Amino acid sequence: MLTELIRAVRPTVVLLFLVTLVTGLLYPATITGIAQVALPVQANGSLISDTKGNPIGSALIAQNFTSPTYFHPRPSAAGKDGYDASASAATNLAPGSKDLRDAIAKRVSDARAEGMTGDIPADLVTTSASGLDPDLSPEAAFLQTSRVAKARGLDVAKVRSLITAQTEEPILGIIGERHVNVLLLNRQLDTLSATTRGK
């Protein structure tokens, strides 16, 4: 009786072991190895480091820049104060919500107070679905040019050309939208300011 039970259970146990070995160990290890060789930056979180090699952020996660000397990111609803990478979330407010209308109106008012004129791009006054969108439209970045240039004592044309240089085009010209990564743009802005101060 016991022999028959062992004979009946053995294939199941062996199959469970093999499936666990292949799908739980070999496959993940293989994919991780390929990713580390083919796309090491992306595989390790697209981390951005300072000049000393210390990580200061990820190109995939928005950070809250509030100083007038930096480009400001898209508003965030992630976490209590926004930009919380451990609490990615949207506001979940309905399009007709008064709270949503009030929040957008306040952000438009703040943008006007900073000197922005004309149409305000939606990505400057609305949160993304994740609350951690690291990118802005070039138009949203250009609207902040005057404030940033004035705060840093830079020529507006230089700041505008920096935005143009940092603008990423759609893949194959059709996939995605034109965008600027705010963290990378601000890092280049620091470099531009340092170069200008050195002259």
UniProtKB/TrEMBL annotation:
The lineage of its organism: Bacteria, Pseudomonadati, Pseudomonadota, Alphaproteobacteria, Sphingomonadales. Keywords: ATP-binding, Cell membrane, Ion transport, Membrane, Nucleotide-binding, Potassium, Potassium transport, Transmembrane, Transmembrane helix, Transport. It comes from Sphingomonas psychrolutea. This is Potassium-transporting ATPase KdpC subunit. The keyword Methyltransferase does not apply. It comes from the Bacteria. The system is composed of three essential subunits: KdpA, KdpB and KdpC. It is a single-pass membrane protein. InterPro entries: KdpC (IPR003820). Pfam families: KdpC (PF02669). Part of the high-affinity ATP-driven potassium transport (or Kdp) system, which catalyzes the hydrolysis of ATP coupled with the electrogenic transport of potassium into the cytoplasm. This subunit acts as a catalytic chaperone that increases the ATP-binding affinity of the ATP-hydrolyzing subunit KdpB by the formation of a transient KdpB/KdpC/ATP ternary complex. It is found in: Cell membrane. Belongs to the KdpC family. Its main location: membrane. The gene is kdpC.
